[in-house]
Amino acid sequence: MDYRERLKSLIKEKALKIADKPVFKLSSGKLSTYYLDLRTITLDPEGGYIIGNLIYQMVKDSKPDAVGGLTLGADPISYSVSMVSYLNKDPIKPFVVRKEPKGHGTKKQIEGNVKEGDRVFIMEDVITTGGSSIKAAKVAQENGLKVLGIIAIVDREEGGEENIRKEGFELIPIFKVSEFLKNQ
Prior knowledge:
By secondary structure, this protein is of the alpha/beta class. The protein has a single domain (47-181), classed as Rossmann fold. The chain has helices spanning 3-15, 39-42, 45-59, 75-87, 131-142, 160-166, 178-181; strands at 16-18, 24-25, 31-32, 34-36, 66-70, 93-97, 110-112, 119-127, 146-155, 171-176. Helix 3 (45-59) packs across helix 4. The chain is globular and about 50 Å long.
């Protein structure tokens, strides 16, 4: 199966919403004429399987110890990659970056079996400004993890890549939104 093409079809069928005028409010507060609800894909059995396989193939040669990112968008992606890696006898651990440090107990901001020095990729469903991914990558670095890059399913092409590069990270998008909007 061509995982990239199947994922593209699923996004077009289930996740991409388009309107004639800007009615979709983004996390940045900006209004848009389109919205990508990728949780319809990342939280779907087929979608998770495809994403896990696709991203595992992208990262396996880099030998990461773990994949993770800011909860909630990154969580199902990280779990899918981890499961596929385990089935390939090449386990990559998932981790979760909390939006804020836990208020009790260990007060950790990163959950999972990662340790200082681990090599990680940050996962993201959709990149707009890059703010969530940058936050996750910085928290990972502050906790001694080596960030190999940021992988996003879709880059909205609204400055996120540039912002991520300015912070010293690499963005590796599976798709750019223009691939979905060029025939609209």
